[in-house]
Amino acid sequence: MGEIVETIIIGAGPAGLTAGYTLAKHQRDALVLEQDPLYVGGISRTASYKGFLFDIGGHRFFSKSREIVDLWNEILPDDFLERPRLSRIFYRGKFYAYPLKAFEALKNLGLFESALCMASFAYAKAFPVREPKTFHQWVRNQFGERLFGIFFKTYTEKVWGMGCDEISADWAAQRIKGLSLGAAIIDGLRRSLGLRKTQAGAKTLIESFRYPRRGPGMMWEACARKFKEMGGRLLMGLSVNALHYDEAARLWTVRATRQSGEVEIFRARHVMSSAPLRDLMNAIESAPLSLFNARDLKYRDFLTVVLIGRPRKELPDNWVYIHDPAVKVGRVQNFKSWSPEMIADGVSTCLGLEYFCFEGDGLWTAPDEDLIELAKQEIGQIGLMDPRDVRDACVVRQAKAYPVYDDAYAQNVETIRREIAARFPTLHPIGRNGMHKYNNQDHAMMTGMLAALNIIRGKQAFDIWRVNEDAEYSEGGVEGAEEALASERLAPKKVA
After folding, report:
1. Cα angle at 58 between 56 and 61, to 5 degrees?
2. Which end of the chain is more exposed for a tag (fewer CB within 10 A), N or C?
3. Which residue, 409, 451, 358, is CA-closest to 11?
4. Which of 372, 354, 356, 355 is CA-nearest to residue 307?
5. pLDDT tens-digit series, residues 218-258
6. Cα–Cα dist 446/177, whole Å
């Protein structure tokens, strides 16, 4: 209890380990506490079953930030594969290449339906919803009502478990940013005609990606090892359940519990947290006012049913989006196409059927054998594998996989953010769940890196809340963040 750590980091996912690695490289004292007793990487870990390896969701290694790409290369210099992206959409018994191929989409939809889609798009452009507030309104403005119904509504409602009119437009603007029907049509025509193209600005159109040969967990296991070699400390199997801030001493007391029930106490000058923002606020003693806002933050949970077998026809896709309302599965991952080294025997096919759910609901609590039977039935219904070819299976559950963007989330997060800034200047939320922000892996890493640099520099030099909102922050990395801040400081101030 006597030792004071400079920085305690809650969570050994991409944000937490990047923060710890950055601090350790600068010879700063850092301790990472991870609740999982075995795995680092959080949702970016690689799970294992009888030697078969699989992702929790599928993690491409692509970033426009030079610092993030350089960090990946520094941590894992010799283990990346360059993988071609192949993904499709399954909708009402037909497969569509994704990104779309214009002629294939016309053929599958039919000339009459295609004409209706174009008319719907033209109407949406002529009569847009002003200041769209919901996901439905935002997508309708970009693509038209009819394409919204075909390619967005069913899948989005599977993912979030709520209607598209209940989901904030922020999520669409963040996740489909840079993609419009015009861009999709031009890109689709090029693909249909077999023309090469440059990388598109929207991440949804990227044609290839890098991937560690044994899954994303390989990156985070290497990061954890190098972090410890540089003097950082990582303790596994510790769940943080209480934090107390001594304002006079500017000192945090952190209480964590092992699975055995043993309690450990730590003290630190700074706390970084990639734990769910709701859980963090619940753990802070003295019940801040924003606790009431934190209770309203919601999360979507996730489970993967892994089917292993020897199908008669090899599946070429990395993943398939299942837009068909006739089945519950939302997406199917083909781990062999991510990397052949994910397959224990080198010849089997290993498919991950992803089901989106809420912790405690019927899917989440269903026995594994029932979930496996459901997955076998649905994979046969879709036509990706004959259920008779499945020889083994397992189920992996992931709580709080996605922060929910409902109509109240933005106000709740902003209230919490203001209170943290005012009352807890040495508390630094980072990462996807830590900031209740649907960040990609590279964005989460950038928040950890910039927060660590704030501690190293002894001031709030970077506003990490702008990562994945401001293009210069997201794409320019540290350099871009510095340039954005400099231009903001130099810009003329508006006079009220």
Report:
1. 125
2. C
3. 451
4. 372
5. 999 999 999 999 999 999 999 999 999 999 999 999 999 99
6. 19
